[in-house]
Amino acid sequence: MDISQRLSFFAALYKVDEQPDLGMWMLYLTMIALCVIVYKLGFAKKLPLGKSLVIYLFLILGCTVLTFLGVFLPIAEGLVVAALILIIYKVRLNQQKKHELNAK
């Protein structure tokens, strides 16, 4: 059984099977970036600096587990889809608000 055929898209892109050290770090940084984007677009509220640091610390620790799961499961791909959906939602929300302000 060839393990490279079972890898998720990002794991195959970063060649985790050929270069495990560099590939896993790249996958880890991708997971962190995507999780931060999804968090900021969908869930972030204005918090004091200390609380924000704690949230981001736990977000980064959680990405460690997600990275190991993301080698074979489409975790990063799901985060990309979630980020795209949230971006579309935010754009539409801003357009709606501008339209309501212009209508008044």
From TrEMBL:
UniProt cross-references to InterPro entries, sorted A to Z: YlaH
Pfam families: YlaH
Keywords, comma-separated and alphabetical: Membrane, Transmembrane, Transmembrane helix
Transmembrane parts of this sequence: 22-41, 53-72
Transmembrane helix is among the record's keywords: yes
Protein name: YlaH-like family protein
Native source organism of the sequence: Mesobacillus zeae
